[in-house]
Amino acid sequence: MTLVKDRLLVFSLLTVFIVAVGAIVAMVNPLQLRLPHDTLTGQAYVEGTVPMGFAPPWNPYDGKGFLTVTTDDANASALRITVEASHDGMIFYKRLYRYDNVENWTPVEFPQDDIDGWIKDEASVTFDVDSARLDPESWVVVYACADVDDAWRCGCFSKYDGVCRKWSIQNFTGTVPPPTRCVADADCDDGNACTTNTCADGVCEFSAVPDGTACEGGTC
Questions:
Q1: What percent of the chain lies above the pLDDT cut of 90?
Q2: Could you state, in order of their start, the residue ranges of all structural domains in the chain?
Q3: Burial 48-82, CB ≥16 within 10 A → b, else e
Q4: pTM check: above 0.85
């Protein structure tokens, strides 16, 4: 019964969402706006700094944030980006978009099980992006809906927004952190007995020792 109810609820969103998806190409480009810079990766924009044409990464009806972005360096030239959308009672469309300075808005999909394209309560995805395709400040957008007095309200800038149907936006720092510079080989200890750790021109390098090399607890 719950599954049937969920299907009926999300089905009513499809007509509205088709309009929103059709408008994705015409989304306001944040790079064309002068935005206050948020230096904390994955932190919500403070109220008043959300760019025009987008909804905030929090539910305007209860003030609780639902959209966060965290990053880690996947390798020397790529960022590993994790997008999490989480809020009890809200639903999130499975397709989200990340800003790409080559292809503009690039689609990504949440991998969790969905009902007619919608995921309830919690969704997350992790992906790697070449840092050359990101700007120092980059963005992701998610289409989210909240149940307000038994009616779905999707992409509202505030609880007084009479139009809504906006994409919720979150920013993140799109640069790969520089490697920690070393002075001596001892600065490069990775805790792995089966690698040789060397400092070369201020950068740590790690190489595997030959198979069969004796080490604590056995051989490599």
A1: 28
A2: 2-173, 185-219
A3: eebbebbbbbbbbeeeeebbbbebebbeeebbebe
A4: no
